[in-house]
Structures are given as C-alpha cells and as structure tokens.
Amino acid sequence: MKLDEVTITRAILSEQSKVMLDYVDIDAAVVGAGPSGLVCAALLAENGVKVGVIEKKLSIGGGMWGGGMMFPRIVVQEEARRLLDHFSIAYTAFEEGYYVAKSVEAVAKLSAAACDAGAEFFNLTTVEDVVIKDDRRVSGLVINWTPVEMAGLHVDPLTIACRYAVDATGHDAMVARMVACKGGEVAVSGEGPMWADRAEAMIIGHTREIFPGLVVTGMAANAVAGEHRMGPIFGGMFLSGERAAELIRKSLR
Predict the structure, then answer these.
(1) How far apart (Å, rounded) are the C-alpha atoms in residues 16 and 10?
(2) Would the CA dihedral through 39, 40, 41, 42 be positive or negative?
(3) Given a cut of 80, is residue 184 above it in pLDDT?
(4) What is the DSSP letter of 58?
(5) Among 55, 111, 219, 239, which one is most buried in terms of CB atoms within 10 A?
(6) Burial grade of 100 (CB within 10 A; 0-12, 13-18, 19 or more)
(7) What is the model's pLDDT at position 59?
(8) Is the Cβ–Cβ distance between 61 and 100 less than 8 Å?
C-alpha cells in the first residue's frame, strides 16, 4: 500500500476537528490529567457524562509517572484498593493496609478506562481564564495552546462551555486561584507541609464544590483548604476523584 502524506494529514485534521466542534459544549471539563482527574473523568464517562479532560502538558498522568523520587511505584492504602480492582491495576501487598502498584501501569489503565468510557483528552492545552456571567457560576473555560503561553505570544483564545469544571491541577489549584482573582468568593490557603496520614484522612472532605460550577479534587482540594501534602501515596487521590465524580453525577441527574 502506497502512503499519501496529504491523506494522513486530512485524516488527522478531519477527525480532530469533529471532536473539537463536538466538545465546545460539555457536561464536565476536568482540568488536569493527574490521578484524581483521571479517576474523576473515567467514572463520570462510565456514567454517561460528556467529559473533556484538559491537560497543559504533552503527557498525562501528573505526579504518578515519577512514583516516589523516580522509582516508578506508588502506594495505595486499603480504603482505595477497590479502585485498583475497578480499573484492573495490578498490585502487591507490602504489609497490612499498604499495596504497591506500578506507576506506569496505573497511568495507562486509568487513561485507557477514561478513553474506553468516552472521555476526550485535550493535551497541550492550557486554561487561561474562566467564564462567569450574571448567574455567578463557572459556565465555561477559556483555552489556548500551551506553547502559545510558553512563548508569550499574543494569540486570542477560544472558549468551551461546561456545566461543571473540575480543578484537578494539583498543588497549584490553578482554576480555583483564577476564580479567586476574578472576584469569586473563593479563598485558596495553599498546602501545608508533608503529613501523609492527616492529608489522606482529610482529602475527601475537602473535595467539594467551592464555587457554583467548580469542584476541586486531589491536591487542588487540599491546597484550597490549607491542608497538608502526602507524597507518593495515591489512595486519597483516587478516592477524591471518585468523590468529585459522585458530586457532579448527582447534580446533573
């Protein structure tokens, strides 16, 4: 079979253009494709929610890829083991209540689960603003290409509409900070020092709708609340993503 460069280009542009046009109006926009964002997106999509995942980097997975200090393993505690099972992520028991999984497999399985369920990924895409109108609710996100932001180019962005935005941007709590800077009644306290036990215990409670239409999950939730960080244990991230999906799914019913 002879390959034609123009056909290859047309195939990519044609298919991705259809996706872009279809996803300018969605149910949930998950900003950040780290552990909590991936779990949230996968579970929402499994329940028929139209989900777009916006990731500013080329690769997805967030802090999971590197495991602990570039050792590609993550730890998950007993409370979240069922989510490892749900997504068919293999693990070994280390000692009672602690399970070790491969970080690369965890990213791959969560990403595949989200794709299989129908979520769409938009990588190399950054959120530079939020849409808040008279109803005082986040109703959309302003997006641009990450390389445009990195180069400091003056290129006007585009906008997607969403019923819910999920801040899964990790330690930076980027979307929450945008809302706070634009006059929303949101306070971002910033995360505290390492205290794994407390951080894991509190993260689900911090996973909530902090402003109409904006749910925080994962480390973004802890950063907003001024909570501690936890390091390379990811059960809390998974459970927080599950909680965010549950909140949005119930509200959209």
Answers:
(1) 10
(2) positive
(3) no
(4) S
(5) 219
(6) middle
(7) 95
(8) no
Residue 1 pLDDT level (bands cut at 50, 70, 90): confident
Task: Specify the 3-state DSSP secondary structure of 142.
Answer: strand
Contact between 214 and 167 (Cβ < 8 Å): yes
pLDDT at 135: 86
Q: Cβ(220)–Cβ(199) under 8 Å?
A: no
Number of C-beta neighbours around residue 194 at 10 A: 11
> What angle (nearest 5°) sits at the alpha carbon of residue 174, between those of residues 155 and 121?
70
Average pLDDT over residues 237-249: 98
For 27, 133, 138, 246, the CA distances from 184, given in Å and listed in that order, are 21, 11, 10, 24
Could you tell me the domains of the chain?
24-70+104-252 (3.50.50.60)
Are the C-beta atoms of 43 and 248 separated by less than 8 Å? Answer: no
Distance set, CA 133 to CA 27, 130, 162, 212 (Å):
17, 10, 13, 11
> For residue range 18-65, what is the model confidence (pLDDT) as tens digits?
999 999 999 999 999 999 999 999 999 999 999 999 999 999 999 999
Write out the two tokens for 52: 């777009």
Which sign, positive or negative, has the C-alpha torsion 225, 227, 231, 234? negative
On the 0-12 / 13-18 / 19+ scale of CB atoms within 10 A, 45 is buried
Report the candidate in 188, 251, 183 with the shortest Cα–Cα distance to residue 222.
Answer: 188
DSSP three-state, residue 236: helix
Q: What is the pLDDT of residues 131-160, one digit of tens each?
A: 999 889 999 999 999 999 999 999 999 999
Residue in 150, 215, 229 with CA at minimum distance from that of residue 186: 215
